[in-house]
């Protein structure tokens, strides 16, 4: 819900906190957008405790608060770091707030000790793997240019053996868009049931030729349509984010959050390892922009959340993002399932927050919506009316 933007209500709802325990990453993906991935800084425990003390004291936390450890490779810090951090957050948590932790990793450093931590704290685990070895190693490389598939797949298989639930995020390249069959065969062979796709995009320091190519939407639509068809036929894929999230938003809006936290002030609170705070799209953290003070609205160690919310940088971003949301509302037929797009993509593609549709919108919202609706229309043509309601989600599950 576009709470602060559409109603003028002063108090935000913090739904997600993206925490950068370190900007450092142990690999050097060719499509990475993070500018500080060589820096070996670490978020101190005092930053973590101050952050969550202020969130919980504000009363702005959602009843279900998601904490994502991301924006670098979080597993380069030891297991003991997270044991201490998670215990500290739990000690601060008020009884009316449930906290769910999630972590996004390249999988190379997963060990039995990590698996024990994930299970103890019910941490949602996302593994970045781009499909079969040839596709993965084309872009996910070490600083010396060597592929990382062997280490990543070893980590993924350890999660399987230790019965740690996980999903994968695969960045789609020009080559993988040609290979839906090979991609699915790989996932099935490895027992992967939850799959998310990101088309290689232009963000931050990275400029993607694929993202700008005129035929990419057509190629992605063909890829996703074919992959979904094959996945349904296999009966072994539980979840395809692009399809299943869209099916929920179109046909069961009452069962999911229809808001867009990326356009809400403090809907997403993004915190760098030094305590610098940003909001809106988490990818803005670490990027440079003089007009918006590099997207930094304050520092959690020295500033109150209230002061940051009313500060100059936040006010300017909120104003311009709201203008972009309103433009989308007035001009885009997909607004009801999108809620105004991703500010970071509007900025990188269109040059400003106060703009409308992007290539990112086309790939992540419009094409999945079109495929979901086309599947439902096919059901309507081929199935007696009383059966349609019961079966319409079978296409996506």
Shape: globular
Predict the CATH topology: TIM Barrel
Average pLDDT metric:
91
DSSP, total strands: 10
- How far apart are the termini? 26 Å
Q: Helix count, per DSSP?
A: 16
Q: Characterize the biggest β-sheet.
A: 10 strands, mixed
Spatial extent as radius of gyration: 21 Å
- Outline the low-pLDDT stretches: 1-9, 385-397
> How much beta, percentage-wise?
5-15%
How do the strands of the widest beta sheet line up side by side?
Answer: 7-6-5-4-3-2-1-8-9-10
CATH-defined superfamily = Aldolase class I
Specify the CATH architecture: Alpha-Beta Barrel
Number of spatially distinct domains: 1
Spell out the helices and strands N to C. HEHEHEHEHHEHEHHEHEEEHHHHHH
- Given this structure, which CATH class is correct? Alpha Beta
**What proportion of the residues is helical, as a percent range?**
40-55%
Structure notes:
One of its GO terms (molecular function) is metal ion binding. The protein is of the alpha/beta class and 397 residues long. It has one domain (1-397): Aldolase class I (TIM Barrel, Alpha-Beta Barrel). The chain has helices at 3-7, 45-58, 79-92, 112-120, 133-137, 149-161, 180-189, 209-212, 216-234, 241-251, 305-309, 312-331, 335-338, 343-350, 359-382, 385-391; strands spanning 14-19, 61-69, 98-105, 124-128, 166-172, 194-199, 239-240, 268-271, 276-279, 298-299. The chain has a 10-stranded mixed sheet with strand order 7-6-5-4-3-2-1-8-9-10. The longest helix is centred in the last third of the chain and has 24 residues, at 359-382. 43% of the residues are buried. The model is unreliable at 1-9 and 385-397 (pLDDT under 50).
């Amino acid at each position: 819900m576009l709470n602060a933007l559409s109603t003028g209500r002063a108090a935000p709802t913090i739904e997600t906190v993206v925490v950068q325990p370190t900007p450092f990453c142990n690999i050097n993906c060719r499509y990475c957008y993070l500018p500080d991935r060589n820096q070996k800084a670490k978020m101190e425990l005092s930053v973590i405790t101050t952050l969550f003390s202020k969130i919980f004291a504000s009363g702005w936390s959602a009843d279900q608060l998601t904490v994502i450890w991301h924006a670098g490779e979080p597993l380069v810090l030891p297991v003991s770091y997270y044991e201490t951090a998670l215990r500290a957050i739990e000690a601060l948590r008020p009884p009316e707030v449930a906290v769910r932790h999630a972590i996004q990793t390249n999988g190379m450093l997963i060990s039995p000790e990590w698996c024990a931590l994930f299970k103890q704290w019910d941490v949602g685990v996302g593994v970045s793997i781009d499909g079969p070895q040839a596709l993965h190693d084309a872009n996910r490389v070490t600083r010396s240019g060597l592929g990382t598939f062997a280490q990543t797949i070893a980590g993924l298989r350890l999660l399987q053996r230790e019965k740690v639930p996980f999903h994968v995020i695969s960045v789609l390249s020009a080559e993988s868009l040609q290979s839906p069959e090979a991609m699915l065969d790989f996932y099935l062979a490895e027992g992967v049931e939850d799959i998310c796709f990101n088309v290689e995009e232009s963000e931050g320091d990275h400029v993607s030729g694929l993202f700008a190519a005129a035929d990419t939407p057509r190629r992605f639509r063909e890829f996703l349509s074919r992959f979904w068809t094959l996945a349904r036929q296999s009966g072994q894929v539980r979840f395809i984010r692009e399809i299943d999230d869209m099916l929920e938003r179109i046909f069961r809006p009452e069962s999911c959050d229809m808001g867009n936290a990326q356009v809400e002030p403090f809907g997403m609170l993004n915190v760098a390892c030094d305590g610098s705070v940003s909001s809106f799209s988490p990818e803005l953290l670490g990027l440079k922009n003089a007009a918006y003070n590099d997207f930094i609205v304050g520092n959690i160690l020295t500033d109150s959340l209230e002061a940051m919310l009313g500060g100059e940088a936040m006010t300017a971003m909120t104003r311009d993002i709201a203008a972009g949301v309103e433009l989308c509302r007035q001009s885009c037929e997909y607004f009801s399932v999108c809620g105004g797009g991703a500010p970071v993509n509007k900025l990188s593609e269109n040059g400003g927050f106060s703009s409308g549709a992007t290539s990112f919108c086309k790939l992540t919202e419009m094409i999945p919506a079109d495929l979901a609706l086309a599947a439902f229309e096919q059901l309507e043509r081929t199935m007696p009316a009383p059966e349609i309601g019961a079966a319409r989600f079978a296409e996506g599950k």
